[in-house]
Amino acid sequence: MLNKPNCRFCSSESLYSFADLGLTPMANSYVKEVDKHKGETFYPLHAYVCGNCFLVQLDKYESAEEIFSDYAYFSSFSESWLSHAKKYSDKVIERFDLSLTSHVIEIASNDGYLLQFFKGRNMPILGIEPAANVAKVANEKGINTRVDFFGRQLAQELSDSGYGADLLVANNVIAHVPDLHDFVEGMKILLNPEGLLTVEFPHLMRLMENNQFDTIYHEHFSYFSFSTLREIFAAKELTIFDVEELTTHGGSLRVYVCHNDADKYGISEAVTKMLELEREHGLNKIETYHNFAEQVRETKRDILSFLVSLKESGKIIVGYGAPAKGNTLLNYCGISSDFLDYTVDRSPYKQGTLLPGTRIPVYHPDKIAETKPDYIFITPWNIKDEIIEQMQYVKEWGAKFVVPIPKIEVI
């Protein structure tokens, strides 16, 4: 047991080491060309697990305001994510008989990637997005978006102004929240009495099973099992009545949540099955979490050995993508421009920058056709199929793709 702050959910003092990834800068702190001669701040990237509630968590080194007020991630640049959002909107509207009078509110609505599909159905919508630069894009597309951080105070203000959610959506945001109590209480306030809340998040069980250590970075304060998240909602008198496994982000869960006294939702068998699945994987035993650290070290050794062998053979390797997860992987493994000549990304907001820590330059994807590398190292492995399909032309000169997680794969 380590001398660390108390658990951010249950306040237990029993926090144990889960994964120590050394020192890294903030994963989304891309370096502008004019700042390339300036230093960067590196922080310990050390995840801990609570021995009481099994919440995996990081220390907070920067406030949410400092991290998220200006953000480099725009959801609409991923075609597969847009498709995922469209399928979700169609499904939830049909399953829960949402109508033209059903109010849809999304927390961390990004650039309107999801709400646009509800707007297209003429349903009343509201997005809440803390990053002003991202919210600006959403508002320019006609997606009504408020620039603010979500919590009790904002939820009460919106409620007092007449807002209430028949459908409240929180996709891949709860991990970014330093104050879980404030955030979940806010969702309870904003959710109408018979309203539906859906939450998507990367599943801790899959993270551990597939060595997805690169999804650990400072912008993610917490990592959830289904069992732990169920406890968190239950503490605020909210009930998870259904759960689905998703393929997104290397294995995610979508939970369906309602107020405890909402009568129209029955508890699905999937809830019981998911609790049992996590018990079978040992997520209720601290030893399971201890074993993860060695898996991470082994994965690092395998990645480095592979890249060293390629470079010794005179091969040219470049990266594809500049995601936050990639910056964790590259910094932890010590992979910089001595291994990857450069990386590319479809987002114009990242092009022309340098990756934090490693200082690998980021270019437009057209750079690959110009330089014809031998290997393309895919850091956003969660959308590898989309990337490989887009980049089929590299086979003209015999280039191959490298996917590092869960283990080295050459395609």
TrEMBL record:
- Which InterPro entries does the record match to this protein? Methyltransf_Zn-bd_dom_put, Methyltransf_Zn-bd_dom_put_sf, MeTrfase_14, SAM-dependent_MTases_sf
Give the originating organism.
Paenibacillus sambharensis
What CDD domains does the database record attribute to this sequence?
AdoMet_MTases
Q: Where is the Methyltransferase putative zinc binding domain?
A: 7-68
Q: Identify the residues that the record assigns to the C-methyltransferase domain, covering every copy.
A: 248-406
User: What stretch or stretches form a coiled coil here?
Assistant: none
Top-level division of the source organism's lineage: Bacteria
Q: Which GO biological process categories is it annotated with?
A: methylation
What keywords tag this UniProt record?
Answer: Methyltransferase, Transferase
Protein name, entry field = SAM-dependent methyltransferase
Q: Which SUPFAM superfamilies match?
A: S-adenosyl-L-methionine-dependent methyltransferases (SSF53335)
Looking at the Swiss-Prot or TrEMBL record, what is one Pfam family this protein matches? Methyltransf_23
Give me the segments passing through the membrane.
Answer: none
Annotated Gene3D superfamilies:
6.10.250.3100, Methyltransferase, zinc-binding domain, NAD(P)-binding Rossmann-like Domain, Vaccinia Virus protein VP39
- Report a single Gene Ontology molecular function: methyltransferase activity
